[in-house]
TrEMBL record:
It comes from Cupriavidus metallidurans. CDD domains: PBP2_Bug_TTT. Residues 1-20 form the signal peptide. Belongs to the UPF0065 (bug) family. InterPro entries: BUG (IPR005064), Bug_dom1 (IPR042100). Keywords: Signal. This is Tripartite tricarboxylate transporter substrate binding protein.
Length: 317
C-alpha cells in the first residue's frame, strides 16, 4: 500500500513547479468530466462544486460522458493533457471498485491520476417499492427464498453493494445493469426490477415523496434526513462497511500549483455551512481532505471494494 500511495504523490511531485501559464491560469474555461449521466450522485456533486468554485477558479463546464461503468469518461481524462483544463469527478465506482469489475478498464485508477480532493461521502440505501410484500430487509430476505428477485445497478459501487447485500442476506437475485442509477430508479418505480442499493442523493426525493421505501442505509448512524430508515447494522447486517465517495482528480503530471489551487478551492467550498447543508439534504456528507490524505484514502478504498466484490462473487468482465 505504501508503494501505491508513493506513486500517487509522485504524480504531483514530478510535475513542473513553474507552470507555463503562470498566474494566468486559467485563461479559458475548464472542463469537468462526469463519467455518469445527469441526475447521478457524481453529476450532482460536480455541479455543486462547479458553482461554488466559480469565483475563485473561473468558468467550469460540466461535461457528462457516461458509459461502461464510468470507464468512458475516466479514460478520456486519463489520456487528456495534464494542463489543468480537463478534470474528472472521481468516485468509488470509477476508482475503488472498477478493477474488481473489469480486467482491463483502460486506465489505472492510481497511477493515471492526481487525486486532488475528496468532496463528499454518500451513504447507500436499500430501496424497494411501497407495494412490495416486505417492509424490512429481513422480510425481503425471507421472501426471496421462495420468490426470485431482480436488482438494478447503474454504477460499479451500486453493483458491488447490491451483490454484497445479496450475498450477506442470502437474497438470490438477478443483476440488471443500467448506464447510470437514475434509469434504474425509473425501472424500479415501474416494477421491472425489485430493489436497488442506491446512492441516497439519487433516491432521496423519491423516499421523501413516498414513492420508494428505504429498508436500510449503509451509514454508521441514521441520517437526520431519513430518520425512519434503519442502518444496515440495525437491520441485522453489521459488517456491511462500504463507503461511497466522490472526489476530484486530474491527469497524472498536472502541475503542483494547479493541484494545490484546486485542493484549496474545493476544500474551502465544501466546508461552507450552506454547502454542507445543501449536500446533507441530498444525502451527502461533506468530506474535504488534503491531497496526501485523499491519495491514501483512494488506495485504501480500492482494497476494500475489491475485497468485497470478490467475496460477493462479482465476476470480472
Amino acid at each position: 500500500m505504501k508503494t501505491r500511495i508513493a506513486a500517487l504523490m509522485a504524480a504531483v511531485i514530478v510535475a513542473p513547479h513553474a507552470f507555463a501559464q503562470g498566474d494566468g491560469y486559467p485563461n479559458k474555461p475548464i472542463k469537468l468530466v462526469v463519467p455518469f449521466t445527469a441526475g447521478s450522485a457524481s453529476d450532482t456533486a460536480a455541479r455543486i462544486v462547479a458553482e461554488e468554485v466559480r469565483s475563485s477558479i473561473g468558468t467550469i463546464i460540466v461535461d457528462n460522458r457516461p458509459g461502461a461503468n464510468g470507464i468512458i469518461g475516466s479514460s478520456y481524462v486519463a489520456k487528456s493533457p495534464a494542463d489543468g483544463y480537463t478534470l474528472l469527478l472521481t468516485s468509488s465506482s470509477t476508482h475503488s471498485g472498477i478493477e474488481a469489475l473489469f480486467k482491463h478498464p483502460g486506465y489505472d485508477p492510481i497511477r493515471d491520476f492526481v487525486h486532488i480532493s475528496r468532496i463528499a461521502t454518500i451513504p447507500m440505501v436499500l430501496v424497494t417499492r411501497p407495494d412490495a410484500p416486505y417492509k424490512t430487509a429481513k422480510d425481503m430476505a425471507l421472501y426471496a427464498q421462495k420468490n426470485h428477485l431482480r436488482y438494478g445497478y447503474g454504477s460499479g459501487s451500486a453493483q458491488i453493494a447490491a451483490a454484497t447485500f445479496s450475498q450477506m442476506a442470502n437474497v438470490p437475485s438477478d443483476a440488471i445493469p443500467y448506464k447510470s442509477q437514475p434509469p434504474a430508479v425509473t425501472d424500479l418505480l415501474g416494477g421491472q426490477i425489485d430493489y436497488m442499493v442506491a446512492d441516497t442523493s439519487v433516491v432521496m426525493s423519491f423516499l421523501h415523496g413516498g414513492k420508494l421505501n428505504g429498508l436500510a442505509i449503509t451509514s454508521p448512524r441514521r441520517l437526520p434526513e431519513l430518520p425512519s430508515v434503519p442502518t444496515m447494522a440495525e437491520a441485522g447486517y453489521k459488517n456491511f462497511e462500504l463507503v461511497v465517495w466522490v472526489g476530484l482528480a486530474a491527469p497524472a503530471g498536472t502541475p503542483t500549483a494547479v493541484v494545490e489551487r484546486w485542493n484549496k478551492a474545493v476544500n474551502d467550498a465544501v466546508a461552507r455551512p450552506p454547502v454542507v447543508e445543501k449536500l446533507a439534504k441530498l444525502g451527502m456528507v461533506a468530506a474535504p481532505a488534503s491531497t496526501r490524505d485523499f491519495a491514501a484514502f483512494t488506495v485504501a478504498q480500492r482494497g476494500i471494494w475489491t475485497s468485497r466484490a470478490t467475496k460477493a462473487g462479482v465476476e470480472q468482465q
